[in-house]
Amino acid sequence: MRKLTIVFKDNSQVKYTIRDSVDWKPYFKRHAKSSMKSAVLQQYPKRDNEPIILV
Description:
This protein is mostly beta strands. The protein has one domain. The protein is built from one helix and four strands. It has one helix at residues 25-29; strands spanning 2-8, 13-18, 36-43, 52-53. A four-stranded antiparallel sheet has the order 2-1-3-4, with no helix packed on it. The two termini are 20 Å apart. Keywords: Plasmid.
């Protein structure tokens, strides 16, 4: 399982929970990079995987 967390410049955020068999990129591309403050992809379990900073 993965969680994609996107925080926007107005401090609103959206979180997606994505199964391992599904690609996360279409969820990331739904939003404009210019409006993002940060985007983090976390693979679970957390103890085995470091978060990936996308923006």
